[in-house]
Amino acid sequence: MAKLPLLAFMALCCTFASVLLVNAMEISVEGRVYCDTCRAGFVTNVTEYIPGAKVRLECIHYKGGDSQVENQVDSDEIEFTIDGVTDNTGKYYFKAQDGHEKDTCYVVLVESPRPDCKEIIPGRDRARFLLSSDAGMPGNKRFPNDLGYLKDKPLDICGSIMKQYNTEEDY
Ligand SMILES: *[C@@H]1O[C@H](CO)[C@@H](O)[C@H](O)[C@H]1NC(C)=O
């Protein structure tokens, strides 16, 4: 007879534990920062990844939800930001808490450690992603698009690489 309340207690406590786990789910966000060494506008076989690049994760809480006001960051609130640096393979990793369903999050370039590769590529200096699993994102990993800088001068080999890409496009 003593077993039943015990089981009930265990079931109750496990339910609470799993609810807590789900609420506190940690989302990992990872991606890379590259140097477009051919100034190609796309990744080539000589694209390099940049260790030590400063990046930031920022989540913005949009007021309203009208898409017309979505880009008026001024009237909205930055919910939180996290600063990060890429590792020696050019990868960054962030850990953030799930539960910001209404937020729009970005990873943004902050600073390049390479004087020869610090030119911003419009559209490649930030990548938008959905953080919350409530927004329909399954799992606890997010992979925003890679972020990239342009190299000041293309590598010597780029001429022949670009020629090859152009030839491939002809077919
Ligand atoms: C990249 O591609 C070019 C052209 O196909 C080739 O000559 C070169 O060896 C390749 N470089 C690397 C690092 O793979």
UniProtKB/TrEMBL annotation:
Please tell me whether the keyword Amino-acid biosynthesis is annotated for this protein. Answer: no
* Keywords on record: Disulfide bond, Signal
The protein's matches in Pfam families, at most eight in alphabetical order, are given as: Pollen_Ole_e_1
Listed GO CC annotations: extracellular space
Q: Where does the signal sequence lie?
A: 1-24
**InterPro entries named in the record:** Allergen_Ole_e_I_CS, Pollen_Ole_e1_allergen
The answer to whether the entry has keyword Signal is yes
The entry's family comment says: Belongs to the Ole e I family.
Q: What is this protein called?
A: Pollen-specific protein C13-like protein
Record organism: Carex littledalei
